[in-house]
Amino acid sequence: MEHPTSAKLPDVPTDNAAAWDRHAAGYQARAQLPTDVAHYGPDIATEAELKLLGNLEGKRVLELGCGGAQCSIAFAKQGATAIGVDFSAEQLAFARRLADRESVRIELREGDLADLAFLRAETIDLVFSAYAFGFVEDLGRVFRQVHRVLKGDAALVFSLPHPAYDLIDDDSEEPLLIRRSYFDRTPIDYEWDGIAFTDYHHSIEDLFSALLRSGYRVDTVLEPEPNTSGPRSQHWRDAFRLVPRTLIVRARKEGR
């Protein structure tokens, strides 16, 4: 989907939360995300293949930007105590209905992804986020709050739109046509099904530096190639074959 740049919208979570409230029903009806395995993004391998999270039996797992909570439900099915946070009330309403249908108990909280005051320090074994951090302008604040609640050496595993993909127009017949500079950090305003959203461009340097400053060591960086077979998602573009669509990072807490 094309993300034409225009004027900056107000800060997250206000506009993106409202946008997701409007978009939730249609998105969830089309997405049909799995509830038995964590997913990292469109048309790439899942946790079943990537194996970044480890054994979750008996672990406390926090999902940031949980949306419909499909990943949190998968964590609970694997024996974890799952906690999901999202800024969209409608996404969380869908998540509660889905958890009931799946006969799974999860804790759901509405709020900014950095507002983790409801959790005590060093009580979480894993923090996971799939494709939510692109809606967050100040990721350093999120990383610092996650660091506080993680146990020592525990992991933060997240995916987000690959910063290289922000450069192209994926609806163009020439998907490698550059439409913005990699170094342009102005917000990216776009419409999805007629609803306005704002993404925030985080370069790989930005992410790495913010993690280091917040007290993490990065042990995994993945740029998954698209799946070679199987049905395509609603998000599929031929450009996925040429430019990495998703960036996945695993970082571990150091210090206290």
Outline of this structure?
With 256 residues, the protein is of the alpha/beta class. 25% of the residues lie in helices and 23% in strands. The chain has 6 helices and 9 strands, in the order ααβαβαββαβββαββ.
What this model shows, in words?
- By secondary structure, the chain is of the alpha/beta class.
- The chain has a single domain (14-253), classed as 3-Layer(aba) Sandwich (Rossmann fold), CATH 3.40.50.
- The chain has six helices and nine strands, in the order ααβαβαββαβββαββ.
- It has a seven-stranded mixed beta sheet, with helices on both faces.
- Helix 1 packs parallel to helix 4 (89-101) and helix 5 packs parallel to helix 6.
Could you list some keywords that capture this structure?
6 helices, 256 residues, seven-stranded mixed beta sheet, alpha/beta, Rossmann fold, disordered N terminus
CATH superfamily: Vaccinia Virus protein VP39
Order of strands side by side in the largest beta sheet? 3-2-1-4-5-9-8
Overall geometry: globular
Per DSSP, what share of the residues sits in E-state strands of 2 or more residues? 15-25%
**How many domains in all?**
1
Q: What is the CATH first-level class name?
A: Alpha Beta
Determine the mean pLDDT: 92
In N-to-C order, the SSE pattern is HHEHEHEEHEEEHEE
CA(first)-CA(last) distance = 41 Å
CATH topology: Rossmann fold
Largest sheet data: 7 strands, mixed
Overall structural class, as computed from helix and strand content, comes to alpha/beta
